[in-house]
Amino acid sequence: MNQLQSMRVFVKVADLGSFVGAAGALDLSTAVVTRHVADLEARLGTRLLNRTTRRLSLTESGATYLERVRHILADLEGVEQMVVARNHEPVGTLRIVAPVVFGLHSLAPVVQSYAQRYPDVVPDVTLADRHVDLVEEGFDVGILVARHMRSASIVTRRLTTGYMTVCATPDYLARHGTPTRPEDLLRHSCLSRPTEQGGGEERVFTGPDGEVRVRPSNAIAANNTEMLRQFALLGMGVAILPSYLIGRDLSAGRLVRLLDEYSLPPIEITIAYPSRLHLPAKVRTFIDHLVEHFQPGSGSARDARGAAQRRAVAEVSATDDLSAPEVTDDPLGSGGTTRRVARVPRPRIAASQF
C-alpha cells in the first residue's frame, strides 16, 4: 500500500484512539485502516499500537514514530502549499531570454514595469543572438525575432510586428545624395551583417510598381545590429535597421528615413514558453504584461513608436502594365544587382512601428 497514505492513517488512528473513528474521518473502511497500520508495522518490523478490546495505546516505538511522522507530513503539506502558491501567485525567479538588440532597446522598460507590479518575482534576463532551446536551457519565457529559438515542445504567441527601415545621417546624404529608389542603393556604401549571417542577401522592396529586388554590396559588415547602427550614426553609409532600434534616432533627426514609398517584409516578434499545462503565475502574468505593453494604442507602444512611425502611404492606383518581369544586371556598374518585377500594385496601409 501507499506508504505516505499509511502514515496519514496511522496519525489519524493515534489522534482518535480508534480504528473505527479514523475510518469515519478518512472516509475509508475499518478493514482498510487496519491494513494500513499493519503494513506500516510490517515495514518497520515493530509494533506501533497496543490493541485491546477496549482501547488503543501507542508503544514506545509508536510514540517516537508518531512524532517524526507529524513533522514529515507537515513539511510535505508546506511544500505542496508553496508549489500551489507559485502556480497561483506570481513568485520566484522568472528566466527570460531575448535577442540582444531587441532586449537592449525594447525589453528593459517592460521588465522594469513588471518588476514594480509583481515585486515577489525576480526577473533573470539573458540576451543571446543564437538558437535557444527553452526546455533544455531552463527558460520560462523567450522572445523570438526571426525565429532565433527552437524546441519540440514550445507554445508561441504573436507579440507585435517590427519593420526594417532604410536610413542614413543627414551628413552622409548631403555628401553622397539621397537614394529615391531601391536601385540607388547599389551606388551607396551599405552597412550590413556578414555574408554568412545573411548580409548582402537580396532585398525585396514593395513599391508603387510592384516588387523590386536589389542585392546591395557591403561596404562595411558587422555581426551585431547595434554596431551597424553606430556605423550609420557616424555617417559611414546607408543601413537597413529594425524600427525598434532606431525610432529615437529618427525622432531626433540623427537618422533620416529613406525610400518611404517602398517597404520591406515585416519582422514578426513572438513570445514563446514551454507549455500551456499548469502554467506558473509568474509566466502567465509576464506574458500578459508583454502583450499589454506592446498592444497597439497603449502608452508604451506609442512611446516606443514615437517619430519612427511610418508616414501614411496613399493608396496606389492600379496600372495596366502586366508585362513580363524585366531583369537588369548591375545597371549602375556598382557590383550589385537589381531586378524589378512589374505587377498590379496592391493598396498599401501605413505600417505601425514600435
Automatic annotation (TrEMBL):
Biological process annotations from GO: DNA-templated transcription
UniProt name for this protein: LysR family transcriptional regulator
Residues covered by region (Disordered): 316-354
One Gene Ontology term of the molecular function aspect: DNA-binding transcription factor activity
Cross-referenced Pfam families: HTH_1 (PF00126), LysR_substrate (PF03466)
Coiled-coil boundaries: none
Keyword Transcription regulation (UniProt): yes
Organism: Paraburkholderia monticola
Domain HTH lysR-type: 1-59
Family membership: Belongs to the LysR transcriptional regulatory family.
Keyword field: DNA-binding, Transcription, Transcription regulation
